[in-house]
Write a structure and sequence with these properties.
With 479 residues, the chain is of the alpha/beta class. It is built from 16 helices and seven strands. α6 crosses α12.
Length: 479
């Protein structure tokens, strides 16, 4: 049993170290990448269809349609599809807005399907069958594109470019500690990771919104499919394996609203992590059979399996307390505990990855910002590890669940409140109570480490206890 504990912990730590090394590599690539995104001169304006996939978004639908209808693009070359699957009062609001803008000369249509099969992917596929555009731009309900979005993105397309993705901004980043934590993590993805992959010719992904597709690319890749919860990542890999190139524009930012309560964050994280595992399960074989170089395949593998880190984080965390016990009672196994170098490499890679992002996000007072936000971000990631690990495991095992939308709030300032939102799920999951128990479990780990005078894991256990405790408390508070 002692060797099983040591082995399990060592494997978990090693895998985390490998993923951290990938982050370090992307940070290195980003630091070497050219920051000037190339644009072409628009000699003619291609026809564009803007798709707005909607389902029960009464709080944000009006501002979305208003913002999209104000895009600076020739109206005779622009078609807007409001793909509304709503079954509540959102439909009435949508109908009024579509009529209002249609009367003002916009080519905007309300598109209703006979059923909601395929959720968002099904809506996008249905709309594409009616779309007239050569290019298709997509915005989720909580996004607010800038007026020049279409000219900025379309001018970046070359002949072999299938998709152009823009950076996400955050209209409510400073609303609370939760929104700051999310922004900290997302900024690293949209700064270091997406730029690193795009600039070095690695496989990257469409983020589901705030991007533009070439319609031919979608068709040649097999169209939108709903057998994973991340139809965006799935189509991204199928398209790139067909030879299409993707571009990421770090200098074009599309603002959006961040979830403001833990249940909303959890639903989003569940979909992203489970969907990534489902996409890996579906596309890894095609990736390895492709004619891409070994280097591109390897980084594609790391990309698709990235959500697996939550499984190994949870395993390493849970085994860390039995490991202390083994270490205390089995001095004959002391050489087996020499994992310091693995931990240091892993932590160093992750730290540099987020530090570079922080320098871009907050060029002034970077140290102050980073020292405060980075530990909070890591703590919440640890607190969400059980929830996310379950999502990843379900994805790999092929357990199918419906597409659960992330509730939107229309919260942009500290005076706005999420209370009374009709889309909140009031049910309590059994996972919540396990998270509460894990908080106590790691609190015991702190006590035990002090008792045996082994202080090496106390900070780790403190972050785990606070993380799980915060997730437990904030989830209960929102019900």
């Amino acid at each position: 049993m002692d060797w099983l504990i040591i082995g399990g912990y060592s494997i978990a730590l090693t895998v985390i170290c490998v993923f951290s090394a990938e982050q370090l590599y992307l940070a290195w690539i980003y630091s070497r990448s050219k920051k000037n995104d190339q644009r072409n001169n628009l000699k003619a304006y291609p026809y564009i269809t803007v798709q707005l996939p909607i389902y029960n978004e009464k709080y944000v639908i009006n501002r979305l349609i208003d913002k999209v209808c104000q895009l600076d693009y020739p109206t005779e070359k622009l078609e807007i599809q409001v793909l509304d699957d709503s079954d509540d009062e959102t439909l009435e609001l949508t109908t009024q807005k579509v009529t209002e803008w249609s009367d003002r000369g916009m080519n905007i249509k309300l598109v209703r399907r006979p059923n909601r099969i395929g959720y968002k992917a099904g809506a996008l596929a249905y709309g594409m069958g009616l779309a007239q555009g050569e290019f298709i731009a997509i915005f989720d309900a909580d996004f607010l594109p800038e007026k020049d979005f279409l000219t900025q993105t379309i001018s970046a397309f070359d002949q072999d470019t299938g998709m152009v993705q823009t950076k996400w901004g955050h209209i409510n980043q400073d609303y609370s500690i939760l929104t700051r934590m999310q922004a900290f993590g997302l900024n690293a993805h949209f700064t270091v990771e997406q730029t690193g992959r795009s600039s070095s010719g690695k496989l990257m992904n469409f983020n589901g919104t705030a991007g533009v597709w070439r319609k031919t690319c979608i068709e040649e890749a097999g169209g939108w499919q709903h057998d994973t919860l991340t139809e965006d990542l799935d189509l991204s890999y199928r398209a790139q394996l067909k030879g299409w190139k993707f571009k990421y524009l770090e200098d074009v930012t599309t603002p959006a609203e961040l979830p403001v309560i833990i249940p909303a964050i959890k639903s989003q994280q569940y979909r992203w992590n489970k969907g990534a595992a489902e996409t890996a399960r579906k596309n890894l074989a095609s990736l390895f059979r492709s004619k891409l170089s070994f280097k591109v395949k390897f980084h594609g593998l790391m990309h698709l399996l990235n959500s697996s880190i939550f499984i190994f984080l949870l395993i390493g965390a849970v085994l860390s307390i039995p490991l202390l016990q083994v270490k205390h009672h089995r001095t004959d196994l002391s050489s087996a505990f020499d994992l310091a170098i693995v931990f240091i490499i892993g932590f160093l890679g992750t730290t540099i990855f987020y530090w570079i992002s922080a320098r871009v996000d907050r060029p002034r007072n970077t140290w102050k910002y980073f020292i405060y936000e980075f530990p909070i971000f890591l703590t919440f990631c640890m607190g969400l590890s059980l929830h996310n690990a379950i999502a990843v495991a379900e994805g790999y095992l092929g357990r199918k669940t419906p597409f659960i939308r992330t509730p939107k709030f229309n919260i942009t300032s500290s005076s706005d409140t999420w209370k009374g939102n009709k889309y909140l799920n009031k049910a309590l999951s059994p996972v919540l109570f396990i998270e509460g128990l894990l908080s106590l479990y790691f609190l015991y780990g702190i006590y035990y480490g002090i008792k045996i005078e082994d202080y090496g894991l106390i900070l780790f256990h403190l972050m785990l206890s606070i993380g799980f405790g915060a997730v437990f408390y904030l989830t209960l508070r929102s019900k």
